[in-house]
Amino acid sequence: MSENSYAVVVGGASGIGAATARTLAGHGYSVVIGDRKLDAANAVIDQLGAGNHAAEAVDVSDEDSVATFFDTVTQRPGRFEIAVNCPGITALGLVTELPVAKFRRVVDVCLTGAFLVIQHAARHIADGGAIISLSSLNARQPAIGMSAYCSAKAGLSMLTQVAALELAPRVRVNAVAPGLVHTPLTSGALGVDGVESEYVENIPLGRPGTPEEVAAAVLYLAQAQWVTGEVLDLNGGAHMMRYPNVHAHFGRSAEVSGSPA
User: Fold this and answer.
1) Rounded to an integer, what is the distance from CA 93 to the centroid of its chain?
2) Which uninterrupted H or E stretch holds 12?
């Protein structure tokens, strides 16, 4: 890390992104958080303590927004060394039933948005810098009812490797692929009876991960000077097991409540 280095965390207003911002700030980086939820991003900035930290609005599904965001944040003094891409959404529905608009929205945020972040970060980042994306266990492990998310994250893992080839040796490009972590993104599913217990039954280490554990992996990849094109599994061994049938749990929950599935 150089003096006056800064890191950009896109999607840093909550969950893994917020933990990553705190971890990077704790290791001496100035941090710029980009997020659609600017008030929440500023609340995280207030937690980071001393340093030249800032928050800016950005919507990763809007190319002009991403371009403007990086044009703006890279005018700040210092050396832009790290970009972390965290945004993610999901949609649950069988292939025969999921509206194409929901499928496209997930791909827009999780894959096309990641492409835009990588593209514009790479145009501005300093030589020797690192770009790290948040992929998922679902990049390698299929899940019933999660076609959009699985497809987008599988695409992101391959995008990471293509970008690593194209940007080497100037920039390193890697990803972390977490399994079950308690975040705002997973809170809805984990609130359904039976979902979390089935997840944990299929985690050899017997527990979910934490946002801070994922952030530590991001920090490692940010600093690992001889690692590029890596998609780092971080799931307590869940990739060796079976993915839970979340869709079935939602269906049973809807039957009990009398709501449509």
Assistant:
1) 21
2) none
> Which residue among 6, 149, 199, 243 is the active-site one?
149
Contact (CB, 8 A) for 18 and 183? no
| pLDDT tens-digit map of 82-126 | 999 999 999 999 999 999 999 999 999 999 999 999 999 999 999
Let me know: does 179 contact 205? Beta carbons within 8 Å: no
Kindly state the tokens that stand for 25: 């700030």
Neighbours of 216 (CB within 10 A): 15
* Residue where the block lists tokens 């959404």: 89
- Which regions of the chain are under pLDDT 70? 1-3, 250, 252-261
Give tens-digit pLDDT for 28-41. Answer: 999 999 999 999 99
Q: Is 243 a catalytic residue?
A: no
Q: What is the pLDDT of residue 261?
A: 42
Could you tell me the residue ranges of all domains in the chain?
Answer: 5-257
pTM of the model: 0.92
Q: What are the start-end ranges of the H helices in 83-130?
A: 100-107, 113-124
Distance (Å) of CA 171 to CA 80, 94, 182: 12, 39, 31
Q: Are strands 5-10 and 79-85 parallel, antiparallel or unpaired?
A: parallel
Give Cα 165 distance to the centre of its chain.
21
CB contact burial 154-191 (16+ within 10 A = b; e otherwise): bbbbebbbebbeebeeebbbbbbbbbbbebebbeebee
Determine the topology of domain 5-257 in CATH: Rossmann fold (3.40.50)
